[in-house]
Amino acid sequence: FMKNQPPQERAFQQLVEIKAMEPDSSLWGQNFPNQWSTLQKTKTNNIDTTYAGSSQFSWLEKDPRQVILFWGYPFSKDYNDDRGHMNALEDVRATKRLNLNDEDPKHTPATCYSCKSSDNPGLWTEIGMEAYDKMSFNEMTPNINNTIGCANCHEAGTMRLIVTNPALDEALEAQGKHWEDFTRQEMRTVVCANCHVEYYFKGDGKYLTFPWANGTEIHQIIEYYEELGFKDWEYPDAKTPMLKAQHPEYEFFTAGSTHYNAGVSCSDCHMPYVSEGAAKFSSHDVHSPLLNPEQACGQCHTDSEYVVRRVNLIQEQVANIKIDTENAIIDAINAIKLAAANPNADAALLDQARNLHRKAQFMWDFVSAENSTGFHNPEYALKILAESTNLARQAQMLAAQSVNDMTLLETGVYDKMDPKPTPAK
Amino acid sequence: FMKNQPPQERAFQQLVEIKAMEPDSSLWGQNFPNQWSTLQKTKTNNIDTTYAGSSQFSWLEKDPRQVILFWGYPFSKDYNDDRGHMNALEDVRATKRLNLNDEDPKHTPATCYSCKSSDNPGLWTEIGMEAYDKMSFNEMTPNINNTIGCANCHEAGTMRLIVTNPALDEALEAQGKHWEDFTRQEMRTVVCANCHVEYYFKGDGKYLTFPWANGTEIHQIIEYYEELGFKDWEYPDAKTPMLKAQHPEYEFFTAGSTHYNAGVSCSDCHMPYVSEGAAKFSSHDVHSPLLNPEQACGQCHTDSEYVVRRVNLIQEQVANIKIDTENAIIDAINAIKLAAANPNADAALLDQARNLHRKAQFMWDFVSAENSTGFHNPEYALKILAESTNLARQAQMLAAQSVNDMTLLETGVYDKMDPKPTPAK
Amino acid sequence: MLKNPFIIAIAAAVIALGAFVFVTDAPAYGGSAPETCANCHVMDSQYENWYHAPHEKWTECVDCHLPHENFVAYYLEKGRQGAKDVYAFTTGNIPVAIRASEKTKEIIQENCIRCHQETVESVVMGAQPFGRYCWDCHRNVSHGARGASGVPYQDSTLYPVK
Ligand SMILES: [Ca+2]
Ligand SMILES: [Ca+2]
Q: How far apart are CA B249 and CA B266, in angstroms?
């Protein structure tokens, strides 16, 4: 009986032996048919919820303000909602955000494959992440044959959860943390941080880096980028040095959310236990928990209808305030563009305006690119949006002051646009 | 055992018969010594928490921004944190907000006694609320001999909870609701709405009225005041027609908060059951639940330390954003005052600025005057503050436009003040 | 000289114990009927919530709260807990909210696994210890929707949800 045996020693019964970092999930699947068959469902999921779901709808069409906000950056061309894990490889190859012209210095690096394939752990071990990231996306393509799979999250043999992405390992180290010391429950969140985090490409080697050296709270991340003087792109005409935020689920959820503080992990909601016959196992069909709230929330919350109604309310409030913030940033962009076109503009004031625009937009994006429409940490979302709106309006005022032109104080610029913007070409 | 006995049929044993609306709580106390002795504790409580508590500290000293925000209104003279129920009468008589000069048309009406005494239910029944409210505070004083007591919440004899304030009765009626139909659990919240609500004095008769005809959500309340063209005072120099919000605990808590939606009532947290020997009763020592979280929260939350830490986090976030909002409104006031002093100001733009100032400040006050520093409904608090800040900044921009003067876009006006303002005389 | 008071003391103790056993029906406390535990009305709410929770059909208090690996451990722990409970009850040293101690929690966890071994076998296995309580998720299992709630009349179905 198992309690006479220290749990560390309890091993899974394995029919087939799996070699370390085996990229082919179907081999692992012979040992664990339940996990494999549920993982495969992520391929065909396509049901939507009010604010998310698995259909890959276009954010640029759903909210054309984002075309303006990302103007001059590939995200203004193509930006879809995410879908299931097994589509990762197909989707990264299909996005119009790629630049596959290796002659162009701005071509897409191999780094973009980092979170899309179970071939990576093996490749990183073999050639090292530095060499990997120096290659172009094109050059890497022949080495990548598998989409996300078991090797991205598990150690073969023991099946324990591990950090497979060297960028995560290094980011934790930079904070003096070692994932090897984490408890099993902590790993049920940290394993998602292999990918669901804000990142940037450091230097010419496009080295994958998480901006966490000062901490993972939003102001610490902004401070990090300020110290580094980093920018993702320059906003056309306005000339603001912009930052793009990307899926910071981990940073957002762990910033003191109700659930995180109560010890709940990502996997508790997104990979709830399901039973197949007598035994239960973790569903590997990862998607919106609003599609199976009975399983995802129902064990902790007896009234799962109640919590789902609550999610609706939270998301609606966040979505509405997010639109106010977008409008404020668009008004600011309009003003800064007009000011920048004026050769007599006061450079110091205009730069202050740009700095506030940069921060306001990164803060907004941190909430917007986070995929739960605020649910992972509702108060944090609203707090950040309140701060962002305040900065955006101040950016607009500074831009107007820089050229002493009252017309720059125009508000509601987006609402007056007709027709509304469409995705860039 | 009790589950075989419907609770409705268990009657109270009463030693002394209490006449209807008996104002003297000590008589009721002969029947219910536990309730009476705990109620008496509210007299001497004086422990503070981080953001509230029972010591009656001055808000104007704790946050001198509020002196500016309430300038021209009695609240800029004297505004303390509330303390226990049995101090109500003493405190209303002592506040410097009173104007006891009955010759002055702005003298304080008797209406100010409405929520401070157990004599009221009897008086209202005898002379009617209309006649009551037409008297001056001075004239009413001899009739008021008891502070808040049993008769404000209970029906003598049955001891059931009742609506005693005609203003609440009428406000519910206006929404087509009848408190007699409410369940016991609902009454455990509604009984507090006799007093813990936003109110105004209607017309020259100073008739106590709750602005709920359109609903109790903040935008419905604002709409109500807009339709009525009501103002509490005019902001000096800026000439904005202002609204003051006052302790809207009921409206705020019931606007879809987690706890309200989950069926939790005010009394669950503020009047938890306690035991004295074998008997279990509702503590009538109403105060901050952070002073007895084991009792107040522990019945529902197994980890009461966890929830208290959470309250801290929520309140800190709300308190910080609230300061941002105050700063934005002060910047707007500054701009509007300067614009109003300019005879060439564009009147239409300046009026728009005033209208936004009016709304922004009412929204801020709705959160600020609510006594839980956001905890009763955290997301609602942050959402309202985000909207308020946005409006305040737009008010400032409009004021600057109205006089075509960039210097009105100055920000951080409060921070530059030295010395900081002190309470008005 | 010394012997008499000693005998008297022993006799007195025996009489007192006899009276105690008679008056309090102490032997019942050696049994396992849930009503016994609920004798102390301080545990009314746990009883009520257990009674209405899904496990009432299958379990008694002791199935979860006492160790079952062997009968020595069972009675040792029963004695230890009982003594503690009676001490707390008679001295009136009753905490505001009664909470399971860490030791109790470990015992309960063992018991969940004892009955549900087959179900949880594959999920509690693995290279790292499971390290969390079953009722972190199964919050309603033993004592109702919100744990051992002591608040009566709390019924959200009675309350309109906006
Ligand atoms: Ca999706
Ligand atoms: Ca107080």
A: 9
Query: Both ends of chain B: CA-CA distance in Å?
Result: 63
- CA of residue B48 to ligand 2 center, whole Å: 8
C38 and C97 belong to one structural domain: yes
Is residue A315 within 8 A of residue A51, CB to CB? The reply is yes
> What 3-state DSSP class applies to A182?
coil
- Residues of chain A contacting B390 with CB distance shorter than 8 Å: 324, 328, 389-390, 393
Q: In the prediction, which pLDDT does C25 show?
A: 52
Give pLDDT tens digits for B390-405. 999 999 999 999 999 9
CB count in 10 Å sphere of residue A166: 21
Which CATH number do you get for residue C56?
1.10.3820.10
Q: For residue A3, what pLDDT is reported?
A: 42
Enumerate the residues of chain C whose CB falls inside 8 A of the CB of residue A183. 128-129, 131
- The SS3 of residue B296 is helix
Place B12 in a pLDDT band, splitting at 50, 70 and 90: low
Q: How far is CA B238 from CA A79, B339, B348, B389, in A?
A: 47, 8, 14, 18
Beta bridge partners of A155: none
For A101, phi then psi, to 5°, come to -90, 100
Do C19 and C47 lie in one domain? The reply is no
- List C147's β-bridge partners, or say none: C145
Q: What ipTM did this prediction achieve?
A: 0.91
Count of pairs with CB atoms under 8 A, one residue in A, one in B: 94
* Residue C111 structural domain: 34-125+132-137
Same domain, C11 and C55: no
For residue A271, the Cα-to-chain-centroid distance in whole angstroms is 18
Q: Which residue among C121, C137, C156 sits closest to A279, beta carbon to beta carbon? A: C121
- The C-alpha atoms of residue A363 and residue B67 are separated, in whole angstroms, by 32
Distance in angstroms between the alpha carbons of the first and the last residue of chain C: 81
Residues C47 and C17 in one domain: no
Number of domains in chain C: 2
In the reported structure, the alpha carbon of residue A90 is separated from the centroid of ligand 1 by a whole-number distance in angstroms of 15
Who's near B307: CB < 8 A, 6+ residues apart? B293, B297, B301
On whether residue C8 sits in a domain, the answer given is yes
Place of tokens 């018991």: C111
Chains within contact range of chain A (3+ C-beta pairs < 8 Å): B, C
C118 inside domain: yes
**Partners of B279 in the beta sheet?**
B276
C40 with C116, same domain: the answer is yes
Domain assignment of residue C114, yes or no: yes
SS (H, E, C) B72-129: CCHHHCCCECCCCHHHHHHHHHHCCCCCCCCCCCCCCEHHHHCCCCCCHHHHHHHHHH
Tens-digit pLDDT profile for residues C137-150: 988 887 766 544 44
Neighbour subunits, B (≥3 Cβ pairs < 8 A): A, C
Query: pLDDT band for position C93 (50/70/90)?
Result: confident
Tokens of A77: 């061309």
- Give the C-alpha separation, C24 to A198, whole Å: 65
Contact C78, C66 (CB under 8 A): yes
Contact in structure between B30 and B15 (CB atoms under 8 Å):
yes
In angstroms, the Cα distances linking B392 to B65, B336, B339, B414 are 15, 11, 15, 14
Asked whether the predicted pLDDT for residue B299 surpasses 90, the reply is: no
Higher pLDDT, B383 or B15: B383
> Do C121 and C46 sit in the same domain of this protein?
yes
Q: Are residues C116 and C46 in the same domain?
A: yes
Q: Where are the alpha helices (DSSP H) in B229-303?
A: 249-254, 258-261, 266-270, 293-296
- Cβ pair B192, B182 in contact under 8 A: no
C102 in a domain, yes or no?
yes
C-alpha to C-alpha distance for B289 and B270, rounded to whole angstroms: 6
The answer to whether B394 contacts chain A (CB < 8 Å) is yes
- Together in a domain, C21 and C84: no
